[in-house]
Every structure is written in structure tokens, then in C-alpha cells.
Amino acid sequence: MKKIIFSIYILAITSTQIAQEKRLKTKFTNFLANSYYSINFGGIFYPFTNDNLIPGYETETFSRNWFSGRMLLGHKITDNLAVQFGTIRPASWFKYDNVNNIGYDRSVWINAWSLSLKKDFNINKKTSFYAEVGVANVTRVGFSIVDKVIYDDSHFASLLYGFGVQYWLSKKWRMSVNGTFIPKSDKYNQPSISQASFGFEYHLQQVDDKTAQNRNNNSYFFPNNILQISYGTGALGFGMNEFFSMNMKVGNFESFGVPVFWLGDIKAQHAFSVTYQRLIYRSEKIFSIDWGVSATYFQSRGNENVFAFSIFPVLRFYLLRRKNYDFYTNYSIIGPTYITKSVIDGFDSGSNATFQDKMGFGVFFGKNRSYNLELRIMHYSNGNIFSDNAGVAIPMQFTFGKTF
């Protein structure tokens, strides 16, 4: 599954880059023009019981939060057949309460990444039924009590299947009701996983040549290329990382912030990055997509030296455009990365193959918007593809860039 994920990303980005040289940047590449994303929320059900624990350990009560999400990226092979890649996970983990009545509360973490085929069957012009089948990469993180494994970790491939009904609001928007299922595995002591959800699909739509030309000729600035250097130090703390991962402690609040990013058990004390980004697509004024490559060196708090090499997509949103500058925010997730160490400061990050995520705020300024300043945070983790996933937190980096 790991190799499949990396292949999808590299193929998509490479084909996009080759195709973009022959078209206006205000038009999608053929790959993007036939793509969509899907966001769904609903209930998740997995019947964990005391039978999953080793003999001699049990509880009378369990804590369950049924709320869950499923996020998907899809690409249409034909009008009615698509390949989808995404993840399913609960909002919070299943918990065994007060194991053996001696005060031990322990959680079981479940995460599933999937690669599947989706087939649509049109009922009428506005309604369709779909069936889905594929493979899921299931990861479970169990728990121990006083160094004794009570429920073991597991990582395995499983069948995934599902079905649903979609109502087409327009060519771009579809509302959907979904059912997704992963059967139980006796071999890995894993109960079945079922999700019932409600959400939407947004299908990218190609603009016509006249509209694309008008957008291309307008006066709004979008950099074709950016070269950046960045430095960050843990001496300033990890406040920005903690706030955007909802891990900041403020007064009586243990989890203050906005949950849109990740923190990590491994903390970088120093970090230096070189990044190159190139424009793939731009809208009329607000939005653009870049692809990028980066090389990052960081030194952990335990003085271990690590290098990371990444390829990644970047979504950029222009929040304020003025005569002398343009202010933006950007966000990048699941950038395939090779990291030179997987065990850092005693924490196991799972594998040398991982992903890079980053977000930040910045400005383009100067004559012809030739220069760039940005504040950003980064994170490395495998997205729970493996049961070991400590994660690396890169502190706020101060970035200087040159556009061309």
C-alpha cells in the first residue's frame, strides 16, 4: 500500500507538470480536470469487546465516540468509473474504562487508508447509485499496562467495500449518503469496521478557452516559480504548532486552539529547508495550486541529525491584495518524503518513507512581487499507515523567497 500511495502521487504530479507546459495556467491539466474530492461525516462502528484482550483483563464499561470522517481524492477514468484514495478514522478513539477495576483507562486507535474503484449507476438525471470495492490499509494501536501488552498493535491489508446514493446538485456538486465496510480479521484479532456517513463530492470543472484567456491576461499576480530558504528554532517554542493542532495549554484549557494540523512527539531544535515550487493552476484571483520539492535538515532535541527529501502539492489562498503586496495563506498535506532516520530520540516514526505536511502565512512584495516572506510550520508522519507513528514537529520557520 505504501508503494501504491507514493506511485499515485509521483505519477499525478509528474504528469501534471509535463502537461502544464502546453496550456494556460488558468486551465486545469487533463488529470485535474477529471478529478474530485469528497468529504463525509457520520457514525463509525467497531464492536471491540473483552474478548479482544488477553486472558485475565477485562472491563465492565467502554467509552465510544461514534462520530467519524472519511476524506477522499478521486480521479474519473470514465464518466461513471473512478479510482479513489482516502482515509477513514474516528474523531476520538475507543476506550476500555477502568480495566480490571484498578484505575487503568486505555485507548485503541484505529485508522484505515484505502484505494478503491467506484462505479456509478445513473437512476435519472439527478440521482445515481454507486458501488465501491478496494483494499484498505488498516492500522491498530493497542495498549499495554505496566509494560505488559494487553491488546497488541496490528497493521494489515483488508478488503473494503461500500455503496451509496448521490444527488447531483450541479455538475460540480453531489450530495451523498454512504455505507463503507471493512470485514473482521480473526488472524489479527480485529473486529469489523462499518461507517454510515453523509457528505458531498466536488468535481473540478474545466473552463472554456475564452474564460481561461481572460483570466490569464488580468493583472493579479501569481508566481510561476518560487525558490525559498527557511530556518526555524525550537528555542522559540512550539506555540504555533500547538495552537493549530489544538494542543496549547491556556489557563484551565488543556486543548486550546484550532484542530487543522498535527504536532508530533519528536521535536526539532533546529531546522533548515530549501524549497522550490512551480505553478500548476491559478484561478481568476483567489486560489492557486503549486507542486514543490524540498530538502530539509533538522537537529532533534536529542542532537540527532536528520535529512528529509519531499515532493508535495501546495494550495495557496490569497486573502488580501494591495498595491504593494499580496498576503496569502497556504496548506500542503501528504507530500511523499524520504527521511534518513525512522527512530529519533527514542521515538519510532514507523518507516523511512513518510509524508510532509506544512501550512503558513506569507506575502509577496517588491517590484513585480519579486520577493517573498513566509512564516510556516511543518510536520512529518506516516498518517498511521504504520502502527508506529511518533511524528516530527518542525518549529515555526522564517522563510525568505525569490519569485521568477
How would you concisely characterize the structure shown here?
The chain is mainly β and 404 residues long. It has two domains: 35-203, Beta Barrel (Porin); 215-403, Porin (Beta Barrel), CATH 2.40.160.
Structural features, described:
This protein has 404 residues and is mainly beta. The chain has two domains: 35-203, Porin (Beta Barrel); 215-403, Porin. The chain has four helices and 24 strands. The strands form five sheets. The protein has an eight-stranded antiparallel barrel with strand order 1-3-4-6-7-10-11-12. Strands 13, 16, 17, 18, 19, 22, 23 and 24 form an eight-stranded mixed beta sheet that branches. A two-stranded antiparallel ribbon has the order 8-9. A hairpin with a 3-residue loop joins β18 (305-321) and β19 (325-339). The protein is globular. Mean pLDDT is 91; it is low at 1-7.
**Element string (H = helix, E = strand):** HHEEEEEEEEEEEEHEHEEEEEEEEEEE
- Estimate the mean pLDDT confidence: 91
Low-confidence stretches: 1-7
Number of domains: 2
Kindly name the structural category.
mainly beta
The portion of residues assigned to helices is under 10%
The helix count comes to 4
- What is the tally of beta strands? 24
The first-level CATH class of the largest domain is given as Mainly Beta
Spatial strand sequence of the major β-sheet: 1-3-4-6-7-10-11-12
Oligomer: single chain
Assign an overall shape: globular
Residues in β-strands, percent: over 45%
Q: What does the main sheet amount to?
A: 8 strands, antiparallel, barrel
State the end-to-end CA separation: 38 Å
Tell me the radius of gyration: 23 Å
